[in-house]
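Inputs:
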Amino acid sequence: MRCSSSKPTSEKVDGFTRKSVRKAQRQRKSQGSSQYRTQSAPVELSPLPQLKDTPSAEQQELFMQKLNQCCVLFDFLDSVTDLKSKEIKRATLNELVEYVSTYRGVLVESAYPDITNMICTNIFRALPPSDNPDFDPEEDEPTLEVSWPHMQLVYEFLLRFLENPDFQPSIAKRHIDQKFVLQLLELFDSEDPRERDFLKTILHRIYGKFLGLRAFIRKQINNIFLQFIYETEHFNGVAELLEILGSIINGFALPLKAEHKQFLMKVLIPLHTAKSLALFHAQLAYCVVQFLEKDPTLTEPVIRGLLKVWPKTCSQKEVMFLGEIEEILDVVEPTQFKKVQEPLFKQISKCVANAHFQVAERALYFWNNDYILSLIEENIDKILPIMFGSLYRISKEHWNPTIVALVYNVLKTLMEMNCTLFDELTSSYKAERQREKKKEQERDELWKKLDQFKLGNAPLVQNNSHSIPSVQNNNNNNNNNNSNNNESQEATSTPSDKDLAVTVEVEDSTPCAK
Amino acid sequence: MAGADGDDSLYPIAVLIDELRNEDVQNDTETQLYSLKMYSIIHIFYNTIYDEDEVLLALAEQLGNFTMLVGGPEYVHCLLPPLESLATVEETVVRDKAVESLRKISQEHSPVDLEVHFEPLVKRLASGDWFTSRTSACGLFSVCYPRVSSTVKAEIRQHFRTLCSDDTPMVRRAAASKLGEFAKVLEPEYVKSDIISLFTALASDEQDSVRLLAVEACVSIATLLPQEDLETLVMPTLRQAAEDKSWRVRYMVADKFSELQKAVGSEITKNDLVPAFQNLLKDCEAEVRAAAANKVKEFCENLPEDNREQIIMTHILPCVKELVSDTNQHVKSALASVIMGLSTILGKDNTIEHLLPLFLAQLKDECPEVRLNIISNLDCVNEVIGIRQLSQSLLPAIVELAEDAKWRVRLAIIEYMPLLAGQLGVEFFDEKLNTLCMAWLIDHVYAIREAATCNLMKLVEKFGAEWAQNTIVPKVLGMANDPNYLHRMTTLFCINALSEACGQEITTKQMLPVVLKMSNDQVANVRFNVAKSLQKIGPVLDSNALQTEVKPVLEKLATDSDMDVKYFAQEAITLQS
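Outputs:
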């Protein structure tokens, strides 16, 4: 990860570098696993008899032997060594998967430690450093886990183990404990999507079966997200974790606990600020909507939260936000809608007027949604004044003909909703614009005045040196009586007048400050 | 939204500015009044405006410089409430800035104020509900600890202990990153009784992001303890970290290796760190190997001198040899950037026997960055084994690269040339490299010819005009008669590049006649390049030469039959008049 810092120098030196770097990466592709380190010299495996050919009295003993055999790890980075043993382990794992999924009564209490030991040995490992430090999940090929041929079967085995009708959480909880879950969660950072997919299902099963672990799992996911948002900005499994949460939220009891509300406001909403939002936005929006369906009173804080983190420059994200707002509006209660309509439609009116046509288009699509239309119609006296300015302006100014056409339709719809208000707004539009302009100008001037204050605040010496030549100038002007100079004299004198004006203002206002 | 709020927000700003102008208030009662005003302003600021992170960041930073504005150290505590809430913000940068400002103004508190105002704030933060306030608290313990009474000290230690075992990893990370700093302000007996147990616990945390921070703390803790305690109190943890299952922790150990080495002293280095370093150099993750490779020189330098050479030769060098042919280019390049430094430590004979083969191998490495790192450090080897030896062994490799079939490789070598020339000296250069440099001028790839002219200019800047006159200029001017017009143009390009460095005399007496003569060339490209060259070297010539020699030629070119020649001649005339 950190090695990459030295890369740019080489790129300057020689045009070959980039190609060779790319090539090297291609060669290394689908590698990655730091687990090999755990073992010094792999033992050669010798095949054991098949479970199905063994009398049932001896099966249990053989099952244990096979589990132990599968604890041997192999180096998959080296594709030529231990071929025979690797194949034996693969076949054995396959057999074990079949054994726990089809045979009944195999999960006796004494088997649990060996089963979990085999699983832990195989899947729990420190994830290797990313091959590509600027890994872009949308663009680049992920690094695939090199020992997948075995690991897949171990995951499969774990899943079948959890799903086995004889599986007893009360026995398993001694082994599938907090530490187990923590290590499992760390693996969600794996770059290999196949692995994350397995993890997702497995964690979901564990959450379902181990009641005692639920709060712990939620808290750890919380921590992962917070670390992702505020510290590392990097975690590959956000989408998968959100997907699990989506179904968890669905099952929350009402009224919602404070812990869950806090999770919504302090974790899910800030997750919207992530740079890689596109990778998990669908899952995130689903979670948010789930919350609002559970408890409609959360609508206002959620909408305000979203408005606070609304993207300022990233159009792609803005489109996603608009999509999420529409999803929320689809389930919003009319009373809740009234609480947020003003700030919300101020933002929508900005989006409608966005120069990026996809943003404008996405916002204008709201008017194709019948439920949203009915909400707007109900509150037309509030919403129309907010929307009118932007709509009217872009109907004349937007560069994109599709947007202009859409805006005409929207204006028409709004006009039909309240014709009188619409006419009023049309006739006052010009005056309104002028008033705005004037206000803007006044603001500008106020700032200029304040800027002069800043200059006046500079060290005294500098002030003096400034004032002396200007006085001399004035004298000269008087002597010459030249019209040009008079002009410049006026120019120099104006700021000081303004200066005074502001001083007066400020003095007026000081008492109020106390 | 900001636009609409703008007008309101101006109001406190205007007030604030008014206050700032009154900065010279000296009278005591006035100061008090003034600080009260200031206090209310800060509150207006804090409560009325913004929850924009950018604004909060600026606010957090500025408040740290406000002591004088609120009436001096006596009133500095009124800055605490706004900074306290800023220290609980989610956004990390804001929070860090607020903590930085709090640390700053803590120094301006009197011991009494520190206990009355500051320390309670730290405690509130340390026992906050949300993780943000607890992480902020971690950075504040060490600044107030030395200046409070012993009862308060005990409380602070207790708070720190609690945070080290906080159940959010964010807080444990914050505590781990401040562990070393906190240890430094603690009384020695508490370092042993408190810090060591915290250190051991953090170093075996379930999260690798916490464990790796403990490695950093290890450096400070080791320096605080007497040598005889290190073995029992620190080394077990350090050994464990060097073999941690997470590569991030091992990377951290490698990255901090020199500091660790200094902190634990030479005896432990010999017994423990040498084997640990060997393992890191052979680590299975390239990241770790690269970090360790970076430290090879520093580690060897800091070994105890009595048996330094023996340790390097028997333990380190074998690992280094393996790294030279590592599969990862970052590892090789990290090694190449320091390996040359070993020659000063090992001396002439060892360098020639053991290191030179490695240098040679790296010089021929497929990765250009590795080659660059070797070439740009040639000077240290030069000092040890002398230029003759160096030239015999390394030069063939350089020459080979200079004639590489791939023009990009040649280009890379040209770019090293001025550097090499500087390190090898003029005599050596003339003897061995000059021909190469001249050969590049007639390379069949334009980019090489261009780089070669640029290279000549840099060489002249290094070796001076006289050298240029004797060695380069005759050869360059000779090319003016080459049958290939591309080579004739190269002469012009060289003159463009060299005239300034060579000075007026050489330019007027030797170069100008050649340029003028080429104005009769039969190839139009040469002729318009003559016009361009005359424009380029104009500023170097005296006005006499310009008037009597250059002007007539340009005027003649301005009537040329070729459109481009005319254009450039006219451009030159307008620019020179």
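Remarks. Chain A touches chain B through 56 residues (CB under 8 Å). Residues 186 and 482 of chain A are 81 Å apart (CA to CA).
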